[in-house]
Amino acid sequence: MTISDEAATREPARVRDDGPAARTAYPVGEVPVLSGRVDRFVGLPMPKRPDTATDLSLRTRVRRQRGRRFPFPIPNGWFIVATADEIAPRETRNLYYFGKDLVLFRAADGTPHLLDAYCPHLGAHLGVGGRVVDGTLQCPFHGWRFDGASGSCVEVPYDDVDYIPKTATARVYPTIERNHMIWAWHHLEGSEPFYDVPDVPEFHDDDWSPIVVREFEIATCCQEMAENNVDTPHFRFVHGTPAVPEEEFHTDGHYKRTVGMDGNFVREGYGLGLGVLRVKDYTTFLSSTTPIDEENVHCRWIFTSPRRAGEGVAEAAADSFVAGVSQDFPIWENKIFKDPPVLRPSEKGITEHRRWCAQFYSYPDA
């Protein structure tokens, strides 16, 4: 994505339409017809299609090869699983993230908890008829109650045996509520968090505008999206920037930082899928890329802008960034992961970034 004014105002060429077959394959966009059929979207730059962020039926998806697309599992890290305002105390919400059916609930005191959906007793889905009782979730099948913090069964209501085996435990995911969002920690081996979700003070500052949230799904993975940030040549060819941007990039443990535009553009990354971007006097935006499974992600972007910048700036920033990332959708959803890639000397940042990403994966079955 790019914030280039030139790229933001550039209009794509008109559509060439060779009848219903072409319109069915590519409902809107920039498509040439070769040998009597639609072959590809025209790029250099790619057309901006912000409508494809929310309407998946408009996406260009031509990749048909089957088999595993990426050589790594779902990463370990903090990911948004809900906005804070979409679930009230004593409510439940059924989710599908990390390749699993999950249940999110708020305890009576408002604390959010996330559990695997299936009761360890006989496998009932805890979110289909389950009931929140204080800080527990009660199974609709036999009334067993599971503590939201530990997942342990704390009550079997129909017999007099006090002993409850440790195996009567639902997997829980550590959760925190921060930046108007509910975050869950995912780790393939169940290990505790090894970094934290940063607090973004602008989201709670009266000198900054109310937040604007955008969300969309993409058929890709966290690492592919994150790699875009160090793949500077793509900004010229996908987004139409007049030149390849020069940026400083460094990493430190789970943390990475990119600085551009003479220090006016600062992007901080925390693990795979969590980033905070600040563009001076324009916007601050937090991004979370939550794995749905190994090949699909759910993105939530949260924007604010300084009030002194004027009314509607955060909304305009959100629209601009979504329009920019829509140029990446056809690339991400139709590419494969090349390992090893064939790189030019100037693209060493991609190799460095891939080494940094490796720390966020576990291989428990290896």
TrEMBL record:
<keyword id="KW-0411">Iron-sulfur</keyword>
<dbReference type="Pfam" id="PF19298">
    <property type="entry name" value="KshA_C"/>
</dbReference>
<keyword id="KW-0753">Steroid metabolism</keyword>
<keyword id="KW-0001">2Fe-2S</keyword>
<dbReference type="GO" id="GO:0005737">
    <property type="term" value="C:cytoplasm"/>
</dbReference>
<dbReference type="GO" id="GO:0004497">
    <property type="term" value="F:monooxygenase activity"/>
</dbReference>
<protein>
    <recommendedName>
        <fullName>Rieske-type oxygenase</fullName>
    </recommendedName>
</protein>
<keyword id="KW-0442">Lipid degradation</keyword>
<dbReference type="GO" id="GO:0016042">
    <property type="term" value="P:lipid catabolic process"/>
</dbReference>
<dbReference type="Pfam" id="PF00355">
    <property type="entry name" value="Rieske"/>
</dbReference>
<keyword id="KW-0479">Metal-binding</keyword>
<dbReference type="GO" id="GO:0008203">
    <property type="term" value="P:cholesterol metabolic process"/>
</dbReference>
<dbReference type="InterPro" id="IPR050584">
    <property type="entry name" value="Cholesterol_7-desaturase"/>
</dbReference>
<dbReference type="GO" id="GO:0016705">
    <property type="term" value="F:oxidoreductase activity, acting on paired donors, with incorporation or reduction of molecular oxygen"/>
</dbReference>
<keyword id="KW-0408">Iron</keyword>
<feature type="region of interest" description="Disordered">
    <location>
        <begin position="1"/>
        <end position="22"/>
    </location>
</feature>
<feature type="domain" description="Rieske">
    <location>
        <begin position="78"/>
        <end position="184"/>
    </location>
</feature>
<dbReference type="InterPro" id="IPR036922">
    <property type="entry name" value="Rieske_2Fe-2S_sf"/>
</dbReference>
<dbReference type="InterPro" id="IPR045605">
    <property type="entry name" value="KshA-like_C"/>
</dbReference>
<dbReference type="GO" id="GO:0051537">
    <property type="term" value="F:2 iron, 2 sulfur cluster binding"/>
</dbReference>
<keyword id="KW-0560">Oxidoreductase</keyword>
<feature type="compositionally biased region" description="Basic and acidic residues">
    <location>
        <begin position="7"/>
        <end position="20"/>
    </location>
</feature>
<dbReference type="GO" id="GO:0046872">
    <property type="term" value="F:metal ion binding"/>
</dbReference>
<dbReference type="InterPro" id="IPR017941">
    <property type="entry name" value="Rieske_2Fe-2S"/>
</dbReference>
<comment type="subunit">
    <text>Homotrimer. The two-component system 3-ketosteroid-9-alpha-monooxygenase is composed of an oxygenase component KshA and a reductase component KshB.</text>
</comment>
<keyword id="KW-0443">Lipid metabolism</keyword>
